Amino acid sequence: MTYTAHINHDAVLRARVALLGSQTLPVRQEVAAYRVLAQVSPLAYLPLLIVALYEYSRQDFAHDHDTALALRAEAVAAARRMYAAEPDRADLLLTALRRYKKQLLLMERQEELAAVDREMAQVMAR
């Protein structure tokens, strides 16, 4: 079975139509569209997904710290999946890690901060 056999082509088409529509989408719908499109075109859509996930966590889940943390962790994972030679990868990864760290600090999750700091240092050293 090829990779394309796992792609829901209808979902890809719906996501593209939603993003190309004339109306502004709620960030929730942007995230859903970028999640789908990042599977078929990661170079184009992973950076957009990273930004949209942060906005979604900040706008819709500022009061729900656990969900905000999960969305920011997803943004970090998306940044890690970016192609290593992508020029903006390091900046996007550092930004995602800083935002994740900020949420960890807000939630007083000290045990996870050291790992985030180590990863940030590794990214900056490259």
Please report which band the strand proportion falls in: under 5%, 5-15%, 15-25%, 25-35%, 35-45% or over 45%: under 5%
Number of domains: 1
Q: Report low-confidence residues grouped into runs of 5 or more.
A: none
Shape: globular
Please estimate the helix content: over 70%
Counting helices, strands and paired strands, the structural category is mainly alpha
The DSSP helix count reads 6
Radius of gyration: 16 Å
How far from one another are the termini? 37 Å
**The biggest beta sheet, please?**
none
Number of strands: 0
Descriptive notes:
- The structure is a single chain.
- The protein has one domain (3-125).
- It is globular and about 40 Å long.
- The mean pLDDT is 92.
- The protein has 126 residues and is mainly alpha-helical.
- It has 6 helices and no strands.
Keywords:
126 residues; mainly alpha
Describe the structure concisely:
The chain has six helices and no strands.
In terms of topology, how is this protein built?
Layout: H1 9-20, H2 27-40, H3 42-60, H4 65-81, H5 89-106, H6 110-125
